[in-house]
Design goal:
Number of helices: 6
Strand content: 15-25%
CATH topology: TIM Barrel
Largest sheet: 7 strands, parallel
Oligomer: single chain
Number of domains: 1
Shape: globular
CATH architecture: Alpha-Beta Barrel
CATH class: Alpha Beta
Distance between the termini: 25 Å
Length: 216
Amino acid sequence: MIYPGACSLTLGHLAPLQVIESCQRAGLAGIEWWGKKHVPHGEIAVAKQVGNLTRNAGLSVSSYGSYYRAGISENEGLAFSAVCETALALGAPMIRVWAGNQGTAESDAAYFQAVVDDLSRIADMATESGVAITVEYHGGTLTDDPATVSELSARIAHPAVFFSWQPPIGLSATECLSGLEAVLPRLGTIHVFHWTAGKEPGRQTIRHPLVDGIEF
């Protein structure tokens, strides 16, 4: 089922109730809640409150936008068990995680395998709790290249692992669509925006209104 929603990170300056009201006014159907501010990892009471507010407003909790980085976070003090418990309290059907903390070009085979192993481990934990894992598409991680995403998908043979596709900045519409088609069998969410690569020194991206990308 496809329905429109918002990442609460986009409205990070607002309180949860204000985020919900903004989504209602925009005619959206769901919210992915931000794990750094709106629903911090491990704050179970907050998660329950925000989840109830969302559902009482007639919206779905689409996902829990965690900042768990596979292969990294467990050793840095963020236990996936705490992330999973928070997602359950929120009532989220899936947990967004990140494929490590460095890009493909900087990663050797051992690093890649460590990320794969941890993704498989946390997917088992999530499955036991009745939720799924969706891997963030992002630069500086192992989803920074369509070919690497394909390799990750092939090496993680777990039915609870999906991918949160978003358009790679700097690629053409044709290239973006090709990458999206490749991940369709394991697509969890689509993060829609219209950004282009900046040409000026020190300006990596230019953010455009979404409506401007209709004919892009």
